[in-house]
Amino acid sequence: MDDKVLWLWLQNAVGCGCPHSAALWQQFGDAASVYAADEAALRRAGVSGALLKNLKNKSLVKAEKIAAAVAKNGWHVLTPDDEAYPDGWANLPDLPLAVYVDGPLPDRSGRLTVTVVGTRKISEEGRHLTGGITAGLAGAGCLIVGDTIAGGDEAAMAAVVKVGGRAVILQPCGLDVSYPKRGDDLRNAVLAGGGTILSEFPPSTPVRRENYGLRNRLMATFSDVVLVTEAGEKSGTVRVANLATAAGHEVLAVPGDRAQNAGCHKLIREGATLVESSDEILRVYAPSYPRLDRQKGVDVEKAYLASPPPKPKPKPAFRPDPPRERVKPYVIRQKAQPAPTETVAFPPLPEHLSENAKTIGIRLTAEPQSAEQLMEDTALSMPQVLTALTELELYGVAVSFPGGRYSRKG
Question: Model confidence over 378-408: pLDDT tens digits?
Fold first, then answer.
């Protein structure tokens, strides 16, 4: 039986972002052993509830259908037992059990890998600077990781393509889903330049809001460092940086106008390294990465920034609406509003819970929340949050939902 099909079966059984995926891999060693395990063996491993039900279903129909789609599109599947599986992902408690790959897997030996992220509402100055720094890094031989979403991510990927660098794109949807549509040409250019597109979401998976949180943890931990070029104080960009810090990866941030770049200033105050050019990064890392050409990176960034940034499109001239005909005023009758729903009263938390589990437990509500949101609401790291959630599930305090969300169990 094809091992990759069994990994696809396991991924479908547990879902993306499952907090138990690392534990299953560590306890059983591979997907074939999980597939062969009976109910008693699964229960001994601590599996229960909906997850146990899914793992008892041994049908391979869906997995084989996905495998056929992978083969048809010329993709391949990366799993935790592959040598090329990123070390940063292997340390995640909710590590991806199957990652779909379009293009060749990058050779990372001797090459600094940098995730570049920026706000969607990036300023023209920020776009130009993002492109310049990214161009310098790519020109020096760094592998750039990001997305094609409008804003800083798109600017970084466009710069890589322009200077002939290598890039990895991580998508929040299936590889066969065109998102964003405007990024189709850029993704094709990345592939044509020897780059790679990755996704842990099975083919045809649409973009959902919770997908970004799952994708962001992979962006934060794939690379050696994360570079934030422009960000608001509360944004997905800052959350990527926080996830990287929690995983022990270095975060670099570019200062700028406080009104537009409050997120980077906040990151710098919290310990991120301030950088303003690719050479400041290469000067530190080039001695440890023999395939980097620092001088070439300096020259490429200089040439990129020498060309003026594109001028913003002029706003259309203001044209006042024509005067409206006066009408007789009328009274809007308010409909009676329903009485507010009562707050759900939960039983007290068990005394024997760990302090981290209690910290998370008191923040759980009847409305499912993501682990990422719970991390932001507390001072805990992502591994601590996921461990606490697992403990709460075991003691019947929390219940998990698809997409890595959790709610309080009454």
Answer: 777 777 888 888 888 878 888 888 767 888 9
Q: Does domain 113-306 correspond to CATH entry 3.30.540.10?
A: no
358 Ramachandran zone, left/alpha/beta (phi>0; psi -120 to 50): alpha
Strand partners, 166: 143
Whole-structure pTM over 0.90, yes or no? Answer: no
CATH match for 355-408 among 3.40.640.10, 2.60.120.560, 3.30.1540.20, 1.10.10.10: 1.10.10.10
Average pLDDT over residues 162-168: 97
Helices 278-285 + 124-140 axis angle, to 10? 30
User: Per-residue pLDDT tens for 282-316?
Assistant: 999 999 999 999 999 999 999 999 987 656 555 55
Write down the pLDDT at residue 396: 83
Alpha-carbon gap, residue 226 to 236, rounded angstroms: 13
Backbone CA torsion sign across 246, 248, 249, 251:
positive
Q: What is the spatial distance between Cα 152 and Cα 146, in angstroms, rounded to a whole number?
A: 9
d(CA 16, CA 85): 16
**Tokens in use for 395?**
């003691």
Q: Which two tokens stand for residue 349?
A: 């938390």
- 287: which DSSP letter? G
Q: According to CATH, where is 1.10.10.10 located in the chain?
A: 355-408
pLDDT digits (tens, 9 = 90+) for 209-254: 889 999 999 999 999 999 999 999 888 899 999 999 999 999 999 9
The ranges of the chain annotated as CATH 3.40.50.450 are 113-306
Task: Report the distance separating Cα 302 and Cα 136, nearest Å.
Answer: 8
Per-residue DSSP letters for 107-119?
--TT--EEEEE--
